[in-house]
Amino acid sequence: MSDALLSASGVTKRYAGIVALQAVSLEVRAGEFAAVIGPNGAGKSTLFDCLTGVQRPDRGQVVFDGRPVDSLKPAARARAGMARTFQRIELFGGMTVLDHLLVADRARTRRGGLLADVLTGSHPSPEELARCAAVLELLGLEQWADRPAESLTLGKGRLVELARALMCEPKLLFLDEPSSGLDRHETDEMGNALQRVQHERGIAVLLIEHDVPLVERLAERISVLDYGELIASGPTEEVLSDQKVRIAYLGATT
Amino acid sequence: MTAAALELDHVDAAYGPFRALFDVSLRVDPGEAVALVGAHGAGKSTIARVASGLLPPTSGTIHVDGTDLTGRAPFHYARAGIAHAPEGRSTFASLTVTENLELAFRAARPKRDVAADMKEAFRLFPKLGERHDQLAGTLSGGEQRMLALARVLVLRPRLLVADELSLGLAPIVTAEVYRVLGQVRDTGTALLVVEQHLDHALAIADRVVVLQQGEVTFDGPPDRLGDLSSTVLLPDGSPSRAT
Amino acid sequence: MQLLEYAIRGVPTGCVFALLAVGLVLTYKTSGVFNLAFAGQAYVSAIVYYELRKELEWPLVAAGVVSILIVAPLIGLLLERVLFRYLRSAGSMAKLVTSLGLLIAIPEIAKLVFGSETRKNPPPLWWVRRTDEWLWPEGATFVLDAGQIATMASTLIVVVGLVVLFRFTNLGLRMRAVVESPRLAELSGVDSERVSMAAWMLSSVLAGLAGVLVAPLFASLNPFDLFTLLVAALAATVFGGLTSIPLTFLGGILLGVLQAVLAGTLPTDSVLTNGLRPSLPFVVLFLLLLFRPGLRSTRELADPLATVDAPPPPPVVRARPPWVATGARAFGTVAALIAFLVSWFVLDQYWLGLAISGLILSVTMMSLIVVVGMGGMLSLCQAALAAIGAFALAQVVQATGVPVVVGLVAGVLIAAAVGALLAVPVVRLDGVYLALATLAFALMFQSIFVPLSWVSGGAVPISVPRPVVGPLDLSDDRYFLVFVIVCATATALVVIRLREGTTGRFLQALQTSDVAAASIGINGPRARVVAFTIAAGIAGFGGGLTAIDLGQASYEASFPYLIGLVWVALLVSAGARSIQAAVMSGLFFFLFPALLDKLFALPGNWVESNPDAPSWVASIANAVQPTWAQSVAFILFGIGAITYAKHPEGSIEAQTTASINALVRRVEARNGDREQAPVGAGVGPGAGGSTP
Q1: Closest CA to C496 of A117, A134, B154, B84
Q2: What span, in angstroms and rounded, lies between the C-alpha atoms of B95 and C412?
Q3: What's the 3-state SS for C89-126?
């Protein structure tokens, strides 16, 4: 219990009379790779939004890294060590890949400001560039560093989002359907990148995903959402063979 | 021979510089159910959009019930009896359930008794009756899908273009939707069903059309599809759920 | 009892507010456009009615029918066909800027067509002059004049009619559906094009009706009064949440009643009354925008079928080689030097003065770069902030006798402080609401603060001497030009550094993806407050320089809020992020009308010097009037803003990018070096990378 990095308890969210989340409790331990699966409309995105602070739950608590974060806005939660990617890709316009990483790094270190900008021009320092280079290399993005991020394919764009999130040096990484819209090859590439990230950086990950083989390959523990309720939770193998889960999610008819 | 409910003849289509369909010919006869299957991004939804006039083709012609409607606005297609339930959210979020239905009923047949249509819609989907005063934007995904279907089904269109009806629906809801589709076909409406979920599509179809990267690669009865189903449909990114 | 009487007296005014506000709500509901040009449309109908009724002496009904039921819908139809049909899927900001451009251009076009002479005492849309000529001939407590009767009757008819339209008719239902998604409506068998045209015609009829009805309230007919009244009515629009017609009507009536009650109960000659009464609507609007619950959470509904449109072309992926930057800098320096030498040696007093004013305006334009271009906030109050800088400079210098340059710094600081105070509540608002809140602030400033003597110095503007800096006496325009160049260059350098530095990158991140910026820990409100404050400081700097230039800090002469709107339209259409665009548009604003003036004077002068020219040539030449200059210039400024939807990066920026790309391509072709293959089609439809 006490070793939980993120612990949500009794999170409930309603929209205009419809229960999107019903008393969902969830834990992610430090360094762990956890996943949430469930059909569209099961409340996965709402859960994500409640955990990262984009929406306020009607009831329930979220504790991160030993302190309640319920009153914190998304930006403050990010500074506390939560980073995320988006299902509908959210890149910054008019910026190169390297710019994305630099911005995230500056947001974390809070180096540079008005005076620094005006007096020195705030050019990237060698240390900053080195940190960016390390992440670019980890995700295999070196050759794209100077490309405008918007011009990349969706698969590469998602990797840029991941790189940007890593620059925040998070304790917990939220991944919102990183494979959606990707083809088989890009999905594999994403899977490999995630495995490398987990292996080399030891960051805890909470993954929302449709693609069951990908989840099977990556996640140690799975929670299943259906109609806003958690219907199963546990080690990956166990949960995926659960009959209830097969019916609700995998579309098994028997 | 009667005119086809829908006939696409050598159709090319594109989104800006991105070409999505190459020389597609497709015919749906009155009362016939055709399943359009293919991998993610193969162009299925594009065909659905061309069939309802949303996306004008760059070349080729479209005939509805024998009339050439190529390049006409989508409402001409709707008035000619083509109903399209597009994939994803396809209801007016700022209108109530009743208003959503009313809009379609009044536009389709100005002289008809809208109240009777409304009753029929709520008979098909009782859930909608319970929520008739609610804004469509506040409905769940499944309910929105039902609303989109109710809107077109009650009007008994000549052809229903159903785009990814099962996407994101719980299996039980999907089964319900397909039960209704079956009823609709039995009343004489032709169906063009776009689907990644093979079981359902094949169960309802008289004919299957397979699309690969914007081209038709198979057109025939479902039983002739045979082994193709595993080899043709799965490469390049079709979701694993289809297995 | 007394109070009730005051309240009842407020109802006619309330109806005026309600009518305008309901018209705006109708346009917004049926087209998704927050249509500031409503005032322009109203003005055209009012002019037509005036001309028909007063000049041609048509009967009332005929004049009313032609101006309201024929001219107005034709204008609406024209706007829909040539402009707004292409903007259906554009963002609300693009639509707002477009309507801003129209607001500037339409009245000027009307003036060109109908002549720009003053039109005094606009005729009412009613037969008798006052109720006591007709009803209760004697002893009536409330006497209504013709304008009030007509307004009250029309407002009631309009409100009831619109409520019926939206609640009970098929057309109303279709209009609501089409504005959410024209394509989805088509799939239901609705002819979206026709519905959209009908919506624009109807809302234009309402604008025309409002224009004709409201015109008699003013001593003479002019578009500025109409627009100011429209902004006042915005309070009612916001009260109705931009969509509810009954609530908007109620809001309008309440506003009128509140105004009348305040006028009746407050002491008549206090500062509070004199300031508060005319400004009450703007104060209410400002407060409503900040505090009305639910307003901030009303998001735009996205068209679910928007992905049918072709995705925007991927941004030009062509890294500019270093020689381009160097070349551009060298070219810019040479051009600036030549411009300077020409100004110094060639220009006479008149043109030199205009060039200086233009250059100073470009400093103010740079404040718009920071707040609009970098911050993504469409601030409509930069003119007010500039005025604050000018007033502060004048007051400090007058009160303490410090050198003017020190006063200039004080002006910057005070403008920045006011900007910061304003920014804290305002930056939380989304696009259109922020624009409206700043507009409300600009009008509050104009109606409450400008008349106060501790702000503006009262009726007579405070004079500001030209300073002496070192050996240079700046009262010589040529030395002053040098001083202004130094100031503008310093400002430009600061803005460039901010744009390229951390501040600019954070703002860029926030502007292109708010959620993603939050996800990496960028504090959005803080960054926006900083941007707004800096912009306010720069505007104050520009304002201070303007005061030094003119020798006085005069609101009327330099900073009316409508002029501020023209600045925004100009800069945004030239390129909201580019220094080059700021300098060009600043100079353009002053030099272009002057050039046109000279141009339009040519034919007349020619006739004078050639008295034996054939009479038909002379009559054609004499038809060209120098007075056209201002109108033509403003029409072009307005049309510039209309192009914003097409080139959000600005026309100068688009042009520069295009020509640099062409140049780079040609050089590369000659060198024969192959760049990497062009990059693919981007993220593709349905996966657009940014939220505009």
Answers
A1: A117
A2: 50
A3: CCCHHHHHHHHHHHHHHHHHHHHHHHCCCCCECCCCCC
Asked whether residue C629 is assigned to any structural domain, the reply reads no
Look at residue C488 and tell me if it is in a domain.
yes
Question: In the predicted model, is pLDDT for residue C1 greater than 80?
Answer: no
CB atoms A213 and B170 under 8 Å:
no
Chain C contact for B18 (CB, 8 A cutoff): yes
Nearest partner of C364 among C554, C567, C507, judged by Cα: C567
Instruction: Assess contact for C151 and C15: CB atoms under 8 A.
Output: yes
Q: Is C435 in CB contact (< 8 Å) with chain A?
A: no
Instruction: Using DSSP bridges, classify how beta strands A59-64 and A4-15 pair: parallel, antiparallel or unpaired.
Output: antiparallel
User: How buried is residue A164: exposed, middle or buried, by Cβ count under 10 Å (0-12/13-18/19+)?
Assistant: buried
Looking at the DSSP bridge assignments, the partners of residue B96 are B135
- Residues of chain A positioned with their CB less than 8 A from the CB of C501: 112, 116-118, 121-122
Cα(C285)–Cα(C283) distance, integer angstroms = 5
Rg of chain B's alpha carbons, rounded to an integer?
17
Res C256 pLDDT > 60: yes
Q: Measure the CA–CA gap between B90 and C184, rounded to whole angstroms.
A: 7
- Evaluate whether the domain defined by B6-242 bears CATH number 2.20.25.90: no
pLDDT for A151-172, tens place per residue?
888 889 999 999 999 999 999 9
Residues in chain B: 243
Which of C214, C234, C254 lies at the terminal end of a domain, its last residue? C234
ipTM for this model: 0.91
Widest pairwise Cα distance in chain A: 70
C283-322 residues touching A, CB cutoff 8 A: 314-315, 317, 319
Q: Report how far residue C538's alpha carbon sits from residue C402's, in angstroms, rounded to the nearest whole number.
A: 21
For chain B, what are the domain ranges? 6-242
Q: Which domain holds residue C457?
A: 350-588
pTM equals: 0.87
The interface residues of chain B toward chain C in range 112-171, judged by CB-CB distance below 8 A, are: 137, 151
- Does A226 touch chain B if contact means CB atoms closer than 8 Å? yes
A residues 136-175 near B, CB within 8 Å? none
For residue A3, how many other CB atoms are within 10 A of its CB? 10
Beta-bridged to residue B13, according to DSSP, are B21
* Chain C residues lying within 8 Å of B15, measured CB to CB: 308-311, 685
Catalogue all structural domains in chain A, each as residue range(s) with its CATH number: 4-250 (3.40.50.300)
How many folded domains does chain C comprise?
Answer: 2
- The reply to whether C376 and C519 lie within a common domain is yes
